[in-house]
Specification:
It is a single chain. With 383 residues, the protein is α/β, with parallel strands linked by helices. The chain has 2 domains: 275 residues, Adenylosuccinate Synthetase, subunit A, domain 1 (Adenylosuccinate Synthetase, Chain A, domain 1); 105 residues. It has 12 helices and 17 strands. The protein has a 10-stranded mixed β-sheet. Strands 12-14-13 form a 3-stranded antiparallel β-sheet. Helix 2 crosses helix 7 and helix 5 packs across helix 7. The radius of gyration is 21 Å and the shape is globular.
């Protein structure tokens, strides 16, 4: 079995969607069945894929190999969002694609009240906001600690789902708002108390359950020739990166989760771990950004259609790469994979936007180096 692991080396937005699409496309001519594994975070990811014929899609809940026929597995560490799942499934269907998705029964599930609570907290933090995407990832994890466990959802019919959601709203959401000393803003009150919100979400939940197959990992993996692990976010946002606290994401963004899954595979896989970086750094929202500079110092004319300004994270920020720091965090994260005989590779993207020349000393760390000066898989080469 061939295993590729695609990891963002920085703060996210490095080009993980591009490289996942590239690796999945490589297996297609060989007639191999490919499965993309999403194993951290949730629907806050936004991985862009542009096909050679100009189709463009930003992936949130499905793997970035979907456009070339790869299926998706949502591991137990991925947080499901029925609203985003249904929206994206219907978008892909309009593109002529019927995506296939598997999921682990231990996945947590985000409700509208997790998303609303997340956004209200960020609003009240003002200048001290954490830079959250507003999609409710952290709030979902916290709520689940208080006995609103994920496993119960799939067992409920629509009427039971509605009653359960009301319980979350009335018992958990309102209690949490009071406990932290916040108030529901006036412009949110009608939304929070809306019966339609709960009814529509229950429909989205039922839709998601009818379009996901829940099977054990061993049973799923055995049907595929190639696995591509598509990480969300980047190494500098890992929940254990205390240097950057509290502006982190509540998940493991490096090699840890993939290795836990790989260790359970019966055969001995051929593993390549690919760390992805732009030729410069970007960061959403608040928090430390070493080497920060104006966009004009990178490229005043470049455009990013995915990372547009939003009320939760503001405008995308830019910085120059610090090569030594990049090298240190990649090698530190990759170290546990050495015992599996894994190959180490680097993907350098956005070369057309900023010309950064990596030193030979740095490049000698890697078995393979990929480079890209465009949006599509056809722009990717290997040296």
């Amino acid at each position: 079995m061939v295993v590729k692991v695609v990891i963002g080396a920085n703060f996210g937005d490095e080009g993980k969607g591009l490289m996942t699409d590239y690796f999945c496309h490589q297996s297609t001519p060989r007639g191999e069945k490919t499965l993309v594994v999403l194993h951290n975070g949730g629907a806050q990811r936004g991985h862009t894929v542009v096909t050679p014929d100009g189709n463009r899609h930003v992936f949130h809940h499905f793997g970035s190999g979907t456009l070339v026929g790869a299926d998706t597995y949502l591991s137990g560490d991925f947080i499901l969002n029925p609203i985003v799942f249904r929206q994206e499934w219907e978008e892909l269907k309009e593109m002529g694609i019927t995506p296939r998705a598997y999921a682990n029964e231990n996945c947590l599930i985000t409700t509208p009240f997790d998303m609303i609570l997340n956004q209200i907290k960020e609003k009240w933090r003002g200048g001290e906001r954490h830079g959250s995407c507003g999609i409710g990832i952290y709030e979902t994890k916290i709520r689940t600690l208080y006995n609103f466990e994920a496993g119960i959802w799939k067992q409920l019919n629509k009427d039971e789902l509605i009653e359960y959601l009301k319980k979350i709203r009335d018992e958990y959401f309102m209690y949490t708002i009071d406990f932290v000393g916040f108030k529901v803003p006036e412009d949110w009150q009608d939304i929070v108390n809306s019966e339609n919100l709960i009814n529509v979400f229950a429909e989205d939940m039922m839709f998601m359950f009818s379009h996901i197959l829940f099977k054990p990992e061993k049973e799923i993996f055995g049907a595929y020739d190639c696995l591509v692990f598509e990480n969300g976010q980047g190494l500098l946002l890992d929940q254990s990166n205390n240097e950057y606290y509290p502006h982190l994401t509540p998940s493991n963004t490096g090699i840890r989760n993939p290795l836990e899954i790989i260790s359970k595979i019966d055969c001995k896989p051929n593993i390549e771990v690919c760390y992805v970086t732009r030729t410069y750094l970007t960061r959403h929202g608040a928090g430390r950004l070493d080497g920060e500079c104006d966009k004009q110092e990178i490229n005043p004319d470049m455009q990013d259609l995915t990372n547009v300004p939003n009320p939760h994270q503001g405008t995308l920020r830019y910085a120059k790469l610090i090569e030594k720091s990049l090298e240190e965090r990649i090698l530190k994260d990759f170290e546990p994979a050495r015992k599996y005989g894994a190959k180490l590779s680097l993907a350098i993207t956005h070369e057309n936007e900023y010309d950064y020349v990596f030193s030979n000393t740095f490049k000698k760390n890697f078995d393979y180096i990929y480079y890209s000066d465009g949006e599509t898989r056809e722009s990717v080469g290997r040296i």
